Amino acid sequence: MKQWREKNKGHVLAYRFANKERKQVKDKLWKKANPDKIKATAKRHREKHKEGISERRIKYYYDNRSAELKHAKEYRDNNHDKVLSGMKSWREENKERIAEYNRSYRQANKEKLQEDFKKWREANPEKSKLIKKAWRENNLERDKENGKRWRGSNPDACRANWGVRRARKVSATVEKFSPREVYERDGWICQLCKKPVDKRLKHPDPLSPSLDHIIPLALGGEHSKKNAHLAHLQCNLRAHTGGIKQTRLF
Ligand SMILES: [Zn+2]
To answer: What distances in angstroms separate CA 173 from CA 63, 120, 133, 165, one per listed residue?
Structure first.
């Protein structure tokens, strides 16, 4: 049969050409009836020509890059929800892989990322402050530890700082009083935000009571009941970073 076909190639081709449509219909029917065979054949073919196929694919992709990109974009636009949910489930299935990727990326680009972050902080001081504050409020324990560690490794700076504050307080003190007297006087209402302060909360809870100097000691204010009032710790800190204007003067 094979030999016969070889010998009569011309006839065979002519016949095939003349019966092209019939053959196509026949093939289609056969394919429909034998999906598994088709799949198996395709698989065998792919495995046999693996490299050639991937090379051709890559080459095709690069030759038709803009068309391919456009096509992909069109697909994404037309199948927005499908693509999103597909991405979501992919991420969920590959959590480990993604985490590992991110980890190694951060490690490999540590300096660059630090540099970028520093630049961003310098360009966005307000946002950066807010982020820092939010982090502190959500990580009170860790913040405390960090502070301790910093003080531990910077004893001189720390002493100097504390010394300045203490010296200021001493020289500014015109009377002795306990903060509690001031808190009672102010009726446990924060004098900055005018909301109640919970007396059970302790420093460094952001909502704990704190003594705020109306004219800061650093600006020559005195450490007196007159120059002090009750404020939530967070309102106090915010006031000192420029959030609230301190205008109440006796
Ligand atoms: Zn307040």
So the answer is: 80, 41, 30, 12
pLDDT in tens, 131-144: 888 887 778 888 88
The answer to whether residue 153 sits within a structural domain is: yes
User: What's the gap in Å between 200 CA and the centre of ligand 1?
Assistant: 15
Look up the domain containing 219 and give its range.
149-240
Residue 182 CA from chain centroid, whole number: 43
Number of independent structural domains in the chain: 1
CA dihedral (128, 129, 132, 135) in degrees, to 10, reads -100
Amino acid of residue 55: E
Does this model's pTM top 0.70? My answer is no
- C-alpha 231 to ligand 1 mean position (Å): 5
Give pLDDT tens digits for 18-60. 888 888 888 889 988 988 888 898 889 888 888 888 888 888 8
